[in-house]
Amino acid sequence: MSCLSVISRNFSTSFVARAAIKNVTVVGGGLMGSGIAQVSAQTGHNVTIVELNQEVLDKTHKSIQQSLQRVAKKVYKEKPQEGENFVSETLSRISTSTNLTDVIQSSDLVLEAIVENLAIKHKLFKSIDDIAPAKTIFASNTSSLSIGEIASVCKRKDKFAGLHFFNPVPVMKLLEVVRTPETSDETYEKLMAWAKAIGKTAITCKDTPGFVVNRLLVPLIAEAIRMLERGDASSKDIDIAMKLGAGHPMGPIELADYVGHDTTNSILNGWHDKFPENPLFNPLPTLQKLVDEKKLGVKTGEGFYSYKK
Fold first, then answer.
1. Active site residue: 51, 112, 176, 254, which one?
2. Side-chain half-sphere exposure of 305, counting CA atoms within 13 A
3. How far is it, in rounded angstroms, from Cα 124 to Cα 121?
4. 247-278, pLDDT tens digit by residue?
5. pTM, to two decimals
6. Which listed residue (214, 235, 254, 261) is catalytic?
7. What count of Cα atoms within 13 Å lies in the side-chain half-sphere of residue 42?
8. Contacting residues for 147 by C-beta, under 8 A, at least 6 apart
9. What residues are paired with 110 via a beta bridge?
10. Active site includes 176?
């Protein structure tokens, strides 16, 4: 079931009223945080976005409004008034704050989508563990860090899990629900129900490096770059091979440029530090060179390919 089908059937607010997770707090108003907030609000949940300053929150709110208008134009193209109502009703469920301590008192779920830095995530969760209601579930949208390590500073390890969304959140259907050995069945079941309620297809994964998608994807990208380093084939031919020979919609070198070389490099280096014996996680000189030269891929206009007009 797609997110658009959830919207088009006018998601029942009575369902949300019965659900365990009604009030969602999203910490971080960037690309991922804003997307998570949007899909939650447009399916009837109350959402509060928390950021460090109001300027960021204003930009986040504007980007969500623009995204919702694009959705409305597509879903309600024959009924523009219903589209306007959809946008206004969804926005009415989204609030913003710079004070997490106040917001958390009514939160059923606190989901962080902040920088991929373990110390910063520890600081966040440690600061709210004692003041959040006992019912509140904590979750991280991390793509590469261990959920168990993030949760290690909290007492409520039974109410801690990973919720790994994919970019762009309003479009991508997959949600990886990551369980640690301490995550309770009750917490897991509530999160799986919430995932379904917001229109995602949820899969379950243990707390293993990269979960499912990145654990397969990052080594694939790394092996493609190693082929380049050895001179086995060109970037173009590697990409064509995987698109036409394996049915991939995008080749691994193209995908590396799309993901961003700073992101992939950071993930690989982090995994290598933790699991130095695994050759799939060995650092890549070519990738480090691109990062040093600030050739990060699509977002900077140049990576393995050039995107400059």
1. 176
2. 18
3. 5
4. 999 999 999 999 999 999 999 999 999 999 99
5. 0.89
6. 214
7. 32
8. 140, 160, 161, 162, 178, 180, 207
9. 25, 138
10. yes
Residue 207, both tokens = 């707390």
Separation between Cα atoms, residue 196 and residue 217, nearest integer Å = 25
Q: Which of 46, 107, 143, 235 is catalytic?
A: 143
Q: What is the pLDDT of residue 37?
A: 98
Greatest alpha-carbon span in the chain: 60
**The one catalytic residue among 46, 164, 235, 265:** 164
Name the amino acid, one letter, at 151. Answer: A
Token pair 């600061």 is at which residue? Answer: 127
- For residue 24, the SS3 value is strand
Strands 160-164 and 137-140: parallel
pLDDT tens digits, residue range 4-28?
444 444 444 455 655 789 999 999 9
Q: Is 164 a catalytic residue?
A: yes
Instruction: Enumerate residues 6+ apart whose C-beta is below 8 A from 9.
Output: none
Selection from 92, 103, 107, 91 nearest residue 24 by Cα: 107
Whether 192 and 175 have beta carbons less than 8 Å apart is answered as no
Instruction: Name 97's bridge partners.
Output: 50
Q: Which residue has the tokens 């050759």?
A: 279
Q: Which amino acid is at 26?
A: V
Active site residue 248: no
Q: In 3D, which of 207, 165, 163, 166 has the Cα closest to residue 187?
A: 163
Q: Which residues of the chain have pLDDT under 50?
A: 1-13
